[in-house]
Amino acid sequence: MDPVPQPATDRMVDFGGHPIVVGVVPGQPELVVLTALSLARAIGAPTLHLAYVDTARYVVEEHQDGTVTHAPIDPDTADDTWQQTHDALEQHITHALGAASLSWRLHYLAGRPDRALTHLARAVDAAAIVVGTRAPGPAARLRTPLEGSVAVHLSYHQHRPVLTVPLSVVDWKAIDAPWDH
Description:
alpha/beta; Rossmann fold; two-stranded antiparallel ribbon; about 20% strand
């Protein structure tokens, strides 16, 4: 078995002139997309590649341009519901970006978010990947230990920098840390 390629200077993608991949989800605050837009403008990125990864679908085939052919995990699921999600995301992104003078493209991917975003970033030779944090609350506290953080998985499984956009902060006084006792 070949060793896994490790981050190194010869694997770096120069920020200048390379696109940015952005993980998006329905209902996500515009802050993630606008942060990615600001970064893209600062580095002269030609394109934002926004990507939603549907975990209720699986990858049938990965294509060299970063797109995938996908199908529902549950064969009894209506196969056109993904298009509604795609259209709603596209409308939300169009509104968020307004008259941005930067081209962008929405990719509808499937499977594990970290793998799908990594595949897309490789395909488009992205300089970095931008993702948002999970919304706080009891559901997030339960999901994170079980599923893990997409940003953490990305930082361990590919060599591009990952910019994590905080979507909510917790007051330091509200944290019950073990070292406080």
